[in-house]
Amino acid sequence: MGKPFITKRILFQFIILLLVPLSVMSQYTDVINSNRPGLSVSAYAVGKNVVQVEMGLFYEQSDHTLLNTQSDLWGTNFSLRYGLFFERLELNYEGTFQDQDIIYDFFDLKAKRRDFSRNRLGLKYLLYDPYKNPERNKPNLYSWRANHKFQLKNLLPAVSLYAGANFVLEDNPYYPGEPTVSPRVMLATQSRMTPRMVMITNTAYDRIGTDDPELSYLISISHAFRNPKWSAFLEHQGIQSDRYSDLLLRGGVAYLLNERMQVDLGLGASFKNTPSRVFVSAGGSYRFDFHKDTLVPIDDQKANENGGAIKKNSMKKEQRKNRKTKGRGAEDIDLGPSKKQLRKLKKAQKQGNSNDSEIDF
């Protein structure tokens, strides 16, 4: 059999060429929406014409009690996300390239493995967005607590479908004998439990058609702190396959440097000792925004009452004013007036002012 047209070296050089220019550029909301530092995938796309790069370095120490092996592993994982054609669709390339040293204590031998443990390309489409309905997001003007407490309706998630393929090039020691291309499908959901807390779930069927197909799930909960630049997450992953099965737990924090850049730190471990795994990661996300707003008038009737349509600049200013902090992968929601604004509203009502629109927030 002849050499494959695309070798690992060519592919790796191509990826580096992509990452170098993007790392100094690179979703869509006002604030970057990154999947890092966990592995769970948000139900929402980055936004039309937005390019986003998410990458980091990791170290893992692994011991296998039955095989009596010790392993040190260094690597890099990266994701390139692009909002394709329209807001609901995202093209996503994900890769993990790692270098592993293994010591076999029984035989006093050392071995090395180096290749892609993850190399896939796919499309994600948002099937359902519960926050598309403006009535659902209408804030309570009389209760700060009602706008911030957990409500059962918040469990209704956004849902997206992912379809893609894994690529195994040359003789990959992590996937010996696997075909060059194998399909992958995934269902991703996202629920905003409270204004500060988001839950994401991923259910995936991977390497379809190979000798060792893989079924996995991810449950991730993210929380944004009072300082909107800081957020934390906790993530659980289950993997079931004849090749490898495990239960993993991850946690970490992220810090927002600005609207376009986020840095993160994560760590995790497995629940078993065949092998036991402990890992730490650090990285960042950056977006380059080619997105153009398509602003729709709020309401023709309100526009007429106010003496005409609201100008684009005024609309954008008001949108930014109403946006509050988000958890990792969260979407913007109007949280309603603050406690101070509510007190002002009630005071005005007591003074006999029943027209809410005259109260200056």
Automatic annotation (TrEMBL):
<dbReference type="Pfam" id="PF13557">
    <property type="entry name" value="Phenol_MetA_deg"/>
</dbReference>
<feature type="compositionally biased region" description="Basic residues">
    <location>
        <begin position="318"/>
        <end position="327"/>
    </location>
</feature>
<feature type="region of interest" description="Disordered">
    <location>
        <begin position="299"/>
        <end position="361"/>
    </location>
</feature>
<feature type="compositionally biased region" description="Basic residues">
    <location>
        <begin position="340"/>
        <end position="349"/>
    </location>
</feature>
<feature type="compositionally biased region" description="Polar residues">
    <location>
        <begin position="352"/>
        <end position="361"/>
    </location>
</feature>
<protein>
    <submittedName>
        <fullName>Transporter</fullName>
    </submittedName>
</protein>
<dbReference type="InterPro" id="IPR025737">
    <property type="entry name" value="FApF"/>
</dbReference>
